[in-house]
Amino acid sequence: MHSTNFSTLNLKPALFENLASLGYHEMTPIQAQTLPLVVSGKDVIGQGKTGSGKTAAFALGLLQRLDVKRFRIQSLVLCPTRELAEQVAKDIRTLARGIHNIKVLTLCGGTPMGPQIGSLEHGAHIIVGTPGRLEDHLFRGRLKLDDVNTLVLDEADRMLDMGFQAALDNIMEQCPVERQTLLFSATFPDKIQKIADSFMKQPALVKVASVHKENAITQAFYHLENSNARYDATKRLLLAKQAQSAVIFANTKVEVHELYQRLVEDGFSVLALHGDLEQRERNETLLRFANQSSLILVATDVAARGLDIDDLDMVINYHLTPDTEVHVHRIGRTGRAGAKGIACSLYTDRDTRKIADLETYFDIVIEPTQLPDESILATQPPKANMVTIQIDGGKKQKLRPGDIVGGLTGKQGIKGDQIGKIQVTDLKAYVAVQSNVAKTALKKIERDKMKGRTFRARLMTW
């Protein structure tokens, strides 16, 4: 059991006195598990949600290592949005109150470049910023990271979602090899493992138990009188669950298309994925589903290969597949990353053999589940919270995620936390924004310049 009192840590007296004056005595679970490792100089991966107290976990570590007399950049903290960066910088300043003459500087997109250049010329001990703007300053030779001894990636999964992978790689490569790296993330996708493998030295992995639950997929089987009842059953399940992310598997592309058309007519937020789509259409469909601009994806098994969505609430097997392994693969797309998922399978008397195969495979007896009552059909389908803006410019135009975040935020723009996933291809860029600010975001992109020029943009709808 970890001791939870700050006094057990080997911290500078000035930090202790300030913590006591702020009324901080007991550590939160993530602090108790990470701070002893952080203070001892180890690389740490902390998995915990926002609000778990992780800022103090890394802030106390970097303040402990800081030498105020050396007026060089010794700590670098990377955050996905300007709002978070400003909050983190504020928290660091509060925790550093007992140490005189500490300079903390924020460098974020969506704010004018001029004052930042001036501040950088005056120097700083700690830099907190967003990847796009930091990369910009690095490339222009204004930012020197030769003296960094602590590098922090805060909300790393969110930065990757927003398309900052390349910028993170570039920044980390410019930092000294001999340094401490601390990475905090609410989820732990494969891309984070890659960062850990490439840029961290034998990191200790700390998970806060309250965040992470065991994988759990609940399977439910619904017996139908005949095939004509499939659509009605599907609609009831979708309305009852109000899923924010559901994939429906049909066996043929004709059935995918028919089901898609009927769901659109009934007001569902839905996209279709089948073998007749061109590669660009397929990519854009997957992108819009992954960034939550659409809540339902109807797909064939072949088309859904490579589908990698972490937060899938629900899978519906519109038809059972004859191949048990394919069934396992289908339902395994839900219940990931510690979330609970439900897999609903529709079947008729013709599927007796398939049901028997599944019973043998899972070593269960399949009892039919009752469908939600037909009164649920009066419910309104849920609407997507996000919408995708397509920008007519990409890597060839030197457009980077940081430029897009900067272009959307700031004067008469939207907030950083209203921006979702960003993807930049060679000639196009796609950014998800909250639906209620979509028009503001679109106007801001079309009106203001990014990379010294204006870009055309449009909202992607069906």
UniProtKB/TrEMBL annotation:
Annotated DEAD-box RNA helicase Q domain residues: 4-32
Domain Helicase ATP-binding: residue ranges: 35-206
InterPro entries from the UniProt entry: DbpA/CsdA_RNA-bd_dom (IPR005580), DEAD/DEAH_box_helicase_dom (IPR011545), DEAD/DEAH_RhlB (IPR044742), DEAD_box_RNA_helicase (IPR050079), Helicase_ATP-bd (IPR014001), Helicase_C-like (IPR001650), Nucleotide-bd_a/b_plait_sf (IPR012677), P-loop_NTPase (IPR027417)
Motif (Q motif) on chain: 4-32
UniProt KW keywords: ATP-binding, Helicase, Hydrolase, Nucleotide-binding
Pfam families in UniProt: DbpA (PF03880), DEAD (PF00270), Helicase_C (PF00271)
Keyword Transport: no
Helicase C-terminal domain sequence ranges: 216-377
One GO MF term attached to the UniProt entry: helicase activity
Coiled-coil regions, chain positions: none
Family matches, as NCBIfam families: PRK11776.1 (NF008744)
Family (UniProt): Belongs to the DEAD box helicase family.
Protein name: ATP-dependent RNA helicase
Organism taxonomic ancestry: Bacteria, Pseudomonadati, Pseudomonadota, Gammaproteobacteria, Alteromonadales
